[in-house]
Design brief:
Blueprint (H helix, E strand, L loop, with lengths): L11 H20 L2 E4 L2 E9 L2 H4 L8 E10 L4 E2 H7 L4 E3 L5 E2 L3 E3 L3 E4 L4 E4 L2 E2 L1 E9 L10 E5 L6 E5 L19 E4 L2 E9 L15 E7 L8 H10 L1 E3 L5 E7 L7 E6 L10 E6 L2 E6 L8 H14 L23 H12 L6 H8 L2 E6 L7 E5 L6 H4 L7 H12 L4 E3 L1
Antiparallel strand pairs: 1-2, 2-3, 3-11, 4-10, 5-6, 5-12, 7-11, 8-9, 12-13, 14-15, 15-16, 16-19, 17-18, 17-20, 18-19, 20-21, 22-23, 23-24
Length: about 425
């Protein structure tokens, strides 16, 4: 990389610094698609001329339009820096012609339910730049480069875009690291995938359908809260087309398993994607096709059992967590427990106690160590606030759903 020196006198240490900087930036330009920009370190997540990624109905029609998606390798980017400086990033096509972006956009938004309005988040995971290659076809992207100013007059970092993900291109998966990785000194394991989760928080990021990835870790959730936040902000899914997707929501701060929701493109499943994150041990890439889909065996088992026994199909059994206990037969142990609970309600005025007695019971079992003694469980109505962790305004729908789900569990053991 050629350095430009000016006539005014500079201290010897400053000239040495310029030389080292020049050599360093030159080495980085050859190393890959990661580069410094302002106070951040960015990576090229996707380069595409495909209309579904360009996604601009007002794009110029006098040549191919290319979208370059840049993401932060660690932390977030100030929206002020994006708006003020991103248009300084120049695109050079295969013929050597250079273009400034005609448009810039970000994906991180907040939704105010009371006002019914959206607002741009002050911190972003990345941004997209659109370039119009006038009178050029899409093949002008082959051999293209990004030119990034360094802050030193006449100096620019050159990043080859041939090394970045393109249309219909899946990044090569690194050597198999298993399903586990380290983030924030916490060992995480990808434990389950759900393309159609039971509860799905609304995706205010890009409105795509949510898909759930679950991670387990050792120890109590309270000790993992900081590491969970790093996992939330750093996790990415790479779709078959090379598009990188960030998590738009989590379940709670300290859940174990820790759950992240990703909005994938239409017809893309989790098993089609590659999970990637900058871990404590370096960049990790894991093919999700190797992870079992949660709930698949459970969903199929009842059908297989019914077919094998060839018994007539019965009416659906009421869910014990949502319906009262069915009326037991006279003289049965269940009947005796009902009579005991009915007696317990007499003289009680506390509505919570009455609700517990009237909600019925589950798991009636004889005590193996005490003859004639039976144990059973009552509904606790415990919202499990400690398990949920800190309340998150952006995830309030999921937080409320989890809280209500906790209140339906039968967690009180008796006697």
């Amino acid at each position: 990389m050629k350095a430009t020196l000016h006539n005014q006198k500079r201290p010897a240490w400053f000239l040495t610094f310029l030389l080292v900087l020049s050599l360093t930036l030159g080495a980085m330009a050859e190393a890959g698609t990661i580069f410094p920009w302002l106070s951040y370190t960015l990576d090229v997540a996707l380069v595409s001329t495909d209309a579904k990624f360009v996604d601009d109905p007002d794009a110029p029609d006098d040549g191919a339009v290319v979208m370059v998606k840049l993401i932060s390798t660690y932390g977030t980017i100030s929206i002020e820096d994006i708006l003020s400086h991103s248009k300084e990033i120049t695109f050079r096509d295969a013929y050597g012609d250079e273009y400034s972006p005609y448009s810039q956009r970000v994906r991180g938004v907040n939704f105010d339910a009371e006002k019914g309005s959206f607002s741009t988040r002050p911190q972003q995971d990345g941004f997209e730049l659109l370039y119009s290659m006038k009178e050029k076809a899409a093949d002008a992207v082959t051999g293209a480069k990004l030119l990034i100013p360094t802050g030193v007059e006449g100096e620019r970092v050159v990043v080859s875009l041939d090394q970045a993900p393109h249309d219909a291109e899946v990044e090569e998966v690194a050597e198999n690291t298993g399903m586990s990785f380290m983030v924030g000194d916490m060992r995480y394991t990808i434990s389950a995938l759900e393309d159609e989760p039971t509860f799905m928080p609304e995706n205010f990021l890009d409105s795509q359908e949510g898909h759930l990835v679950s991670f387990t870790y050792p120890g109590p959730g309270k000790e993992a809260e900081e590491a969970n936040q790093k996992l939330y902000s750093g996790a990415r899914l790479i779709e078959p087309g090379g598009n990188q997707v960030i998590a738009y929501s989590n379940s709670d701060n300290i859940g174990n398993p820790y759950e992240l929701f990703f909005g994938l493109s239409d017809d893309v499943l989790l098993a089609d994607c590659i999970f990637t994150i900058q871990s404590d041990e370096g960049k990790v890439k894991i093919s999700l096709s190797e992870v079992g889909v949660a709930g698949a065996d459970i969903a199929e088992e009842p059908q297989a059992t019914a077919a094998a026994t060839e018994e007539p199909s019965a009416e659906p059994t009421a869910e014990p967590t949502q319906e009262p206990t069915p009326e037991p037969e006279e003289g049965s142990m269940e009947r005796k427990i009902v009579d005991v609970l009915t007696q317990c309600t007499k003289g009680i005025t506390d509505e919570w106690q009455l609700a517990i007695y009237r909600a019925g019971f589950q798991e009636v079992r004889p005590d193996p160590e005490k003859e004639g003694v039976y144990t059973f469980r009552l509904r606790s109505f415990d919202p499990g606030l400690k398990e949920l962790g800190k309340y998150q305004e952006e995830n309030r729908q999921y937080y409320l759903a989890r809280m209500l789900e906790n209140t339906r569990t039968y967690g009180l053991k008796s006697p």
